[in-house]
Amino acid sequence: VVPAAAVALPRPQVRARAAPQERRRRVAPLTAAAPTRAGDEPLLRGIFEIGKRSCDVVLSGRQLRWSPILPESPAGDSSVALQAEEEIIEMKDVFSVKLKRRRFAGQKKGGTLLGITIFKCLNKEENKLTDCAIHLNNLSEDHCQSWFRHLKEILNGFPNRPKSLKVFVNPSSHKREATHIYYEKVAPLFKLADIKTDVTVTEYEGHALSVLKECELQAFDGVVCVGGDGSVSEVAHGLLLRAQIAAGKDTDYVSKPVRAPVPLGVIPAGTTNILAHTLYGIKHTVTATLHIVMGHIQAVDVCTFSTPRKLLRFGFSAMFGFGARTLALAEKHRWMPSSQRKDFAFIKTLADLKPEECELSFLPLQILQEGSHEKDKISLLYLGSKDQWQKIQGHFLNVSIMAIPCLCSMAPRGLAPNTRLNNGSMALIVVQNTSRAEFIKHLKRYTSVKNQFNFPFVETYTVREVKVQPRLKSGPDTKTNVCLNAEGLYLWNIDGDLMKEASEVHVRVHPQLIDLYGVNTDDLESSQATCNCI
After folding, report:
1. CA 261 → CA 63, 216, 243, 291, 422, distances in Å?
2. Same domain, 259 and 293
3. pTM
4. Please, are residues 416 and 429 in contact by the beta-carbon 8 Å criterion?
5. InterPro entries attached here (predicted)?
């Protein structure tokens, strides 16, 4: 560790006999006269021990830079100085800074100061984030306190980074591991980043929704859900419903909803975790947590699902037909292990494959792509007014309506690969009646890079509104309406949550209605698959 006297120097010194030009060469990377951007001006400079080497360290608003202080060659050879490699940390990648102290067992406060530890978010391959620590050792209390204050000021200046979060944990999701995931992996990172949390472990379906209706959301910078797709959908619905109530909107009919007041974070702890995969490109607890800690915000489109009489819920995607029946059967066998339950429901529904007769009305969109750069601008052209709806009627095995790409491990390109998180459109995917063998071929395509829509019985549309009107058969064949349950209600799979409804369902997309912690999957390296099917 460098003696305290050394850190009082305004800049590192070398032996007196060293040539002036040699001294300039050694610090040239730190004092170059090149033009500097705002925030690049040095704020502090000092000496710390990093990795058992004494280093010249410079802090600016954008970067923390250091290079080893090299011993001088006895012969005055300056080639040794050229071996000093400067290392740089971007301050936007730092999420915490702590004073490092040595304490005895059981000692909670005080202790011998050893220096400063900086915690950085490291972007590894395959979209995975992790945290790493850099130790800046110095025994001077005043010196370290000064650096600590400046570092904290820089971190506090980054926007969108939460200081207080409302957390919902669903202990029943998937393998009942959500509680363990939160307290063992998520909570320590929140504490490290000095984020205060208020945790609710949900006890029944709808618990999070009831809490959100009464919660003082202005006390929090964001809301986090630890659970599966159904839990996340419930919290998102609760946030948006609370926003409509606060704005004085009629919650029975919401034509132009207001945005959610705070961002929503998703910690994957379910079976498929579609929303987490879509936001992060991977199911990884630490990655999801660090996106929240770093304040990575992504505006996302949301759908409203309603009947002619009332608003049913807010959501991101829905399936009617095969996808809904599979979920309903899985829910009936909750006593089975999650993976077995899912496989059983899928195989049983596939064995009993039957079409559903319904009428689909939709208001189409045309996506206009401009430019030839990597990040082309995408704009939407509304085709016609409300009296120019298009209709199709027939027997369909499955109908999917999705406002987001819906990535998951079983569909790495997404269930709707040409949809975007926030371009104000929905994908309407209609699978007409066909043989079981052909339908299985279509389903297998989701797991590959091939176009899953390249079948004559699959139709895709880009839309902004959809109305689904099931046609109830009359007479002795009434029971052949396979989407009807025992109560005479039609089954819907909305974000992995089962919904039952007796009448027509009207689906509208509302652009960028909620902010989610995460990134746009278009920017993720592993999600750059292209598709011209929609």
Report:
1. 32, 11, 6, 19, 18
2. yes
3. 0.83
4. yes
5. ATP-NAD_kinase_N, CERK_C, CERK_PH, Diacylglycerol_kinase_cat_dom, Lipid_Phosphate_FormReg, NAD/diacylglycerol_kinase_sf
206 plus 336 within the same structural domain: yes
Q: Which residue in 166, 221, 189 sits closest to 96, CA to CA?
A: 189
Residues facing residue 357 across a β-bridge = 395
Long-range contacts formed by 448-454: CB under 8 A, 24+ apart: 449/413, 449/529, 451/531, 451/533, 452/413, 452/533, 453/429, 453/533, 453/534, 454/533
Mark whether 139 and 277 lie in a shared domain: no
- Output the CA torsion sign for 313, 318, 321, 325: negative
pLDDT tens digits along 93-109: 999 999 999 988 887 78
Query: CB of 230 within 8 A of CB of 315?
Result: no
Cα–chain center distance at 210: 24
Instruction: Enumerate residues 6+ apart whose C-beta is below 8 A from 486.
Output: none
Q: Which of 201-210, 375-384, 427-436 has the lowest mean pLDDT?
A: 375-384
272 and 316 in a common domain = yes
* CATH number assigned to the domain comprising residue 117: 2.30.29.30
- pLDDT mean over 137-145: 93
User: What pLDDT, on the 0 to 100 scale, is given for residue 31?
Assistant: 34
Instruction: Kindly state the tokens that stand for 95.
Output: 């999420």
Work out the burial of residue 427: count CB atoms within 10 Å of its CB; fewer than 13 is exposed, 13-18 middle, 19 or more buried. buried
Domain enclosing residue 332, as ranges = 164-366+389-472+489-526
Residues 259, 302 within the same domain:
yes
Contact 433, 394 (CB under 8 A): yes
Contacts 24+ apart (CB under 8 A), 98-106: 98/192, 99/144, 99/145, 99/148, 100/135, 100/137
* Neighbour count for residue 347 (Cβ, 10 Å): 12
SS3 21: helix
Instruction: Give the model's confidence band at 331: pLDDT under 50 very low, under 70 low, under 90 confident, else very high.
Output: confident
**pLDDT(5) > 80:** no
Place of tokens 């709707």: 416
- 182 and 153 within one domain: no
Least confident segment among 16-25, 114-123, 279-288, 417-426: 16-25
Residue 381, classed as helix, strand or coil, is strand
**Residue 336 confidence class, pLDDT cut points 50, 70, 90:** confident
- Report whether 241 contacts 251 (CB < 8 A): yes
Burial of 242 (0-12, 13-18, 19+ CB in 10 A): buried
How much is the pLDDT for 126? 76
**Mean of per-residue pLDDT scores for the chain:** 82
Residue 12 lies in a domain: no
**pLDDT tier for residue 334 given thresholds of 50, 70 and 90:** confident
Give the CATH number, domain containing residue 195. Answer: 2.60.200.40
pLDDT the model gives residue 514: 96
Average pLDDT over residues 486-501: 84
pLDDT at 335 over 90: no
SS3 112: strand
